[in-house]
Design brief:
Radius of gyration: 15 Å
Organism: Pseudothermotoga hypogea
Protein name: DUF2089 domain-containing protein
Distance between the termini: 19 Å
Order of helices and strands: HHEEHHEE
Helix content: 25-40%
Shape: globular
Number of strands: 4
CATH class of the largest domain: Alpha Beta
Number of domains: 2
């Protein structure tokens, strides 16, 4: 959790999040919760959520997020609205919500969208 907390601090430092937003995120993902004993679910905690965005101009976005921090991804969607006008970010947000509901069993693609302008958005767990 140390790395995740440092990432939040950097976002605040860079002006991308307010301190209040960072605190809300930290509480949401359980950064301040008591350490838990390892369980069978601990193996899936090492899974990662991958985000890949490719646009026709050659821009690439590659993000790797621990599943424990996956809820943060939804907070980045509004910032992508101008850069990805052909992508229905509301639909992406709903699909993320559905996926987060069953992360323990999930493996592989969650979202795979090809928009009319050639932009590709892919979210998957590995």
């Amino acid at each position: 959790m140390r790395e995740e907390l440092l990432k939040l601090f950097r976002l605040v430092r860079d002006g991308k999040l307010s301190p209040e937003e960072a605190l809300e995120i930290a509480e949401t993902v359980g950064i301040f919760s008591q350490p838990q004993q390892p369980t069978k679910e601990g193996a899936s905690a090492k899974k990662m959520l991958y985000v890949q965005i490719r646009d026709p101009k050659g821009e690439k976005v590659d993000v790797k997020i621990p599943l424990s921090m996956a809820q943060l991804l939804k907070l980045t969607l509004p910032a992508l609205k101008e850069r990805l006008p052909g992508v229905d970010l509301e639909m992406v947000s709903k699909q993320i919500d559905q996926a987060l509901g069953s992360l323990q069993e999930l493996e592989g693609d969650i979202v795979n969208i090809s928009s009319e302008d050639g932009t590709i958005v892919r979210l998957f767990i590995g």
